[in-house]
Amino acid sequence: MKRFVTGVALAVGLAGCAVPAARPAVGTAAIPYTSVGLERVLGQDAAGLIRLFGQPDADVREGAARKLQFESGICVLDAYLYPKGSDAPKVTYIDAREPDGSGIDRASCVAALTRREGGR
Q1: Could you tell me the CATH number of the domain that includes residue 65?
Q2: Which of the 8 DSSP states describes residue 58?
Q3: C-alpha span between 111 and 77 (Å, rounded)
Q4: Which of 2, 47, 62, 76 is the most buried (most CB within 10 A)?
């Protein structure tokens, strides 16, 4: 009987060490970052972006770097301009999101912004 009680106590104690199976993460799918459809923006200077989209909704400068932000009812586009050597700052990276902050394809946002009033 003593062995039986010891065995049950040991089994109950080890049962607490069991690790539950991991649940798969639930959320939105990651949007892949490619440069397809961004040819009109990447490599542009500030004047080129203004010709394409109109006046920016925000213009943030930090040292030699600059961020121009363009908004529409569909999306918000942040264009990051950095200088290379003595050249004028040019767009090296862009980020896009819907007005509520959720992700959107960057090329779709560029297309939408070129159709907003003030853009060409």
Answers
A1: 3.30.1450
A2: E
A3: 11
A4: 76
Residue 22 domain flag: no
- For the chain, the first-to-last Cα distance in angstroms comes to 88
Return mean pLDDT, the chain: 81
Residue 57's contacts (CB-CB under 8 Å, 6 or more residues apart) are 69, 70, 71
17 Cβ neighbours under 8 A, 6+ residues apart = none
Q: How far is 94 from 107, CA to CA, in rounded Å?
A: 10
The number of folded domains in the chain is 1
Per-residue pLDDT tens digits for 64-87:
999 999 999 999 999 999 999 888
Please check whether residue 4 lies inside any domain of the structure: no
What's the domain range around 112? Answer: 37-120
